[in-house]
Amino acid sequence: MPAPADPVQSHRAIEALIARYAELVDDGDFAGLGALLADAVFVGGGEPVSGSEAIEAMFRGMIVVHADGTPRTQHVITNVVVEVDERAGTAAARSYVTVLQALPELPLQTIAAGRYNDRFARGEDGRWRFAERRVRITLVGDLSRHIRQ
User: Fold this and answer.
1) Are 101 and 145 in contact (CB under 8 A)?
2) Which residues lie below 8 Å from residue 29, measured CB to CB, with a gap of 6+?
3) Rounded to an integer, what distance in angstroms lies between the CA atom of residue 79 and that of residue 96?
4) Which of 7, 22, 42, 132 is least crowded, fewest Cβ atoms below 10 Å from its Cβ?
5) Span 71-100, mean pLDDT?
């Protein structure tokens, strides 16, 4: 394994992974989500899911995609706290998520809010990867146009 990286670079890399997840969901890029989380376990409202194909299938089956090919959402990530153990090549992060949605027939509104609790591992190539994503939605609005019932 490469020598431990600079902690600032590690924090930035992990923050970029957290942001990339939000971008992929909002773009409706479920294959990209599968690839991003390929080495991770995803824990949400149902049974834990792991593996690129299974994670991609879970998102395809769960998220409503509209005429423009996206869920018409914007995931806003705040209160990001990253804790890195450079020697072990592991990290943990916690953050808040607020999900906004707008459609021609739906004015812009908050549809969900909650927390992400993530674990990361640095691979043999020195790059950080998701090891686990736990999603806990604590406030729920109108999800009828976002999540399949």
Assistant:
1) yes
2) none
3) 6
4) 7
5) 97
